[in-house]
Give the backbone structure.
Amino acid sequence: MLKQFQNFLLLMLLLLPLTSSAAGIGIYMVNVMNERELEGDQAFGYSPGMGLSFDTNLGKNKVFGYRLNFEYYRASGTDIPTYYNYNGVLRPNREVDVSKNVFSIVNNINFGMYRSEHLRIWLGVSIGIQNIDYTSDNKVSSDPNDLYYDENYYNSLNLEIGPVVGLNYNINESTSLGVDLSYGVLNFGTTSAKARVYAFWRFGETFVQKKPTLVIDQPKEEKQRDFESKLNYLKSLREKEIITEDEYQEKRQEVIKSLKL
């Protein structure tokens, strides 16, 4: 267990450089509302926890955002494990109380669906790496000769992936509150629903309203000079009898319309 937890801490240290681009840092409460095996008898109920969060886009007027969470929670539940002896004979099953300590690194890649100075609503994908230490509250025997010897409680590193939706409410330039809801599948075998409530300290970001592109009208003096130049050119063509008087008048009207004089 100690070696795997050390590896987990090393992974956290490797990810810390990503926080250099963060626009906010905060703390949060996580609530695991339901965690259950897709095919099996293991289930965990309501499990609270806490974490530290870094976010690159709490209130910018940009679509892309990235949130990095480091969190811990302890979950308690029940399981009906299957027992076999060394000859492969099935032993009687019984329900046992189980618990686990979960240390997670959660990456939220999100896209702003609605953005304003005070509110950002986003949708994305959550990718988590979990270091899980399974234990048994009723101390199942570790003696292989015991009827209920259980070798299924262990420490493991797991992957969790699924959709996430959230919102940030920016109170002012330095404070932001947030909430998100996620649903994930752990190692394609366990489903999990989580809710998180955040309090952020913002720094180095502002909401910049995109200004419409202005079409600057040509100054009247420039239009006048352009008109006179074209008109003089038409006059020279008429004097040289390159164009007739009627053609001159027709083209003169076209020039006037094009310059909107």
